[in-house]
Amino acid sequence: MVDASVWVHSLADPEGQYTKDITARLEELCSDGGSLYIVAVLTPLEIQSGMRGRYLGLSRGNVITPADQKLFDNAIKAVPGLPVSRIVPSQDNYVRAWELRDNFTTYDSIYLAVTETLVNEHDGQAAFATADGKLVRGPKVPVPLIHLNPLDSYS
After folding, report:
1. DSSP line for 5-53
2. 45 Cβ contact list (under 8 Å, min separation 6)
3. 142, 133 in Cβ contact below 8 A?
4. Domains, the chain, ranges and CATH?
5. C-alpha span between 135 and 32 (Å, rounded)
6. pLDDT band at residue 155 under the 50/70/90 scheme
7. Could you give the 3-state DSSP secondary structure of residue 71?
8. Alpha-carbon distance 129 to 120, whole Å?
9. What's the whole-model pTM score?
């Protein structure tokens, strides 16, 4: 399971080192025939929200160049074509997400609940990949976690 934070960092800098590193890492994780998953509807909306935040942050006090505009437009257009399998959360996933409410946001809880299902269905051979440092440093995540820290690509 790959959350929106990874995609936002990657789509915001398609030629950058993070994107190269993340592509290699995700390919490595799937080298045994595994798949990348996102939560249908949620992940694309979170990607768009993250890209909007970057756009607004860039536009404050700066002029958005035609190249910047094209990058953001292309990023949003790329989302439907991401090379992933889309999972629609089940009723059980929503119930489990509610159980996680004290420690995680609603959105993170759905990612984690769906990932728990994948872990169970794939004999423990699934994990949750995120660039969200706050999530990684927070309470114990109930699934295997892969932190794809964007800062690691620039150190």
Report:
1. HHHHHHHHSTTSHHHHHHHHHHHHHTTTS---EEETTHHHHHHHHHHHH
2. none
3. no
4. 4-154 (3.40.50)
5. 27
6. very low
7. helix
8. 17
9. 0.89
